[in-house]
Amino acid sequence: MGEITVKVTPKAKQQRIRMEGDVAKIYVTAPPEDGQANRAVEALIAEAVKLPTRDVSIVRGATSRTKLVSIYGVSTEDIWKRLSEYPNH
User: Is this model's pTM higher than 0.90 or not?
Assistant: First the structure.
């Protein structure tokens, strides 16, 4: 299991991932209402690391823009590699 820190921007014009140092900036089109943005973040990260959404979960910061995300089945180093290779970064 790997963990990464992400900074989320909800209600963005398009969904994308941008790497900045040791933080991944995640832009999602979903609004920050009723967990919609959190689910969109989990789905986008899952797509980028090529794992099912069930393997990605927000473990800290559910109501904050800065979140700690756990990804099961992959190391933290591999997560960063896969995110940096994602086409929309």
Answer: yes
